[in-house]
Every structure is written in C-alpha cells, then in structure tokens.
Design brief:
globular; 10 helices; single chain; 191 residues
C-alpha cells in the first residue's frame, strides 16, 4: 500500500471530484489551464490546416488537439453530408429510411454528437442567442428549422440524445440501424 520513496505515481483526471476522498487526500493537485481561445486558434493556424479554425474549435468544444484531429480526419466531410441529408429530408427530397440508410456509415457516437450540437444550436436560436451556436456556417438553414420547431419538443429530443449517449458511453450495445432510424424519424417529427 505504501510505495517506495523513489516511486512517483501520476494520476491525471478532468474530474477530480469523482475520485474517492482517500485517493485525493494522498495527491498533490496541479491544475493545468486550458489554452485561451486565441492560443488555440494560433495553434491550429500554425499547422496550416485547410479548414476554418473557428469551426473546428467549436466542433471540438474548444479543445485544440481534438480540433486538430477533427481537421485531419474526414469528420468535416461527413458532417457536411449529414447536414445535406437532413436538409433533403426537410425538403422532402429524401425519405427517413433513405437518410437513415446513408447515415449508417457514420459511427453512432459521432452521429449522436452531431445531433446534440444541432439541437443545442436550435435551442440557442429559439432563445435568441444565435451568435453562440456551434455550427455558425449553417446559421441560415438552422434558423429556418428553429422557426418551425417547438422548444419543448427540441428539449425532449435532446434528453433522448443524452440518454443514448450515456448508453454508448457505458458500452451498452445498441442496434445501430434501429437507433439511427429512430433518430431520423423522431427528428423529422420535430418540424
């Protein structure tokens, strides 16, 4: 139980309160500040990425390394396809089944995150804070959707998304096709 005098154990957490009091009492806390928004933007610009740093930072919840990872992967392309499918569904150019079929190649976790960002954006627009949305490049289209949506229905959908997100985080094996179809059908009913 007691380590030797020459042993150092590093415990890294973003949620120290989740650690037991016994463990916390034996630790020396060293807080590491996250970089400022301008530092994060500069970091992304230094890597000469062909993307809008503001957009990838927003999608990565202002985490520069996560933003860098998003910019290097095909996440932005999949995101654009995702929006296109949703708009085609709204314009009755595609059915819910067709949209769900196209979205099956998306990882369920990333699909849930995209939906959570959109719902959060729609709620912010409904509440009069469009300058705070994540998907600033989609503001016009999202504003049109927000006009058609009921705030209580958006919040109810958000609750469903959070529950599904908790299931995926706890490694509950969800049927991806059924879950995706349910997400799309419920989404279409919001408007």
């Amino acid at each position: 139980e007691e380590p030797a005098s020459n042993v150092v154990v590093m415990l890294i957490t973003s949620h120290p309160a989740a650690l037991s009091a016994t463990i916390r009492s034996r630790c020396q806390a060293i807080a590491i500040k996250t970089p400022s928004y301008s530092q994060a933007q500069d970091f992304l610009k230094q890597h000469a990425l062909d993307v809008d740093p503001k957009l990838v930072l927003a999608l990565a919840e202002n985490a520069p390394l996560k933003a860098l990872e998003l910019a290097k992967e095909d996440v932005l392309q999949k995101r654009q396809e995702f929006f296109q499918y949703l708009y085609e569904l709204q314009n009755k150019k595609m059915s819910t089944v067709q949209v769900a079929q196209h979205l099956l190649d998306h990882e369920l976790r990333s699909l849930l995150i995209m939906f959570m960002h959109i719902i959060s954006d729609l709620v912010k627009i409904k509440l009069g804070a469009p300058e705070n949305i994540i998907n600033q490049d989609q503001l016009e289209e999202l504003s049109q959707l927000a006009d058609k949506a009921n705030l209580n229905n958006l919040l109810s959908y958000q609750t469903k998304l959070l529950t599904l997100s908790q299931y995926t985080s706890s490694k509950i094996n969800l049927n991806q096709q059924l879950t995706t179809e349910t997400l799309i059908i419920t989404w279409a009913q919001l408007f």
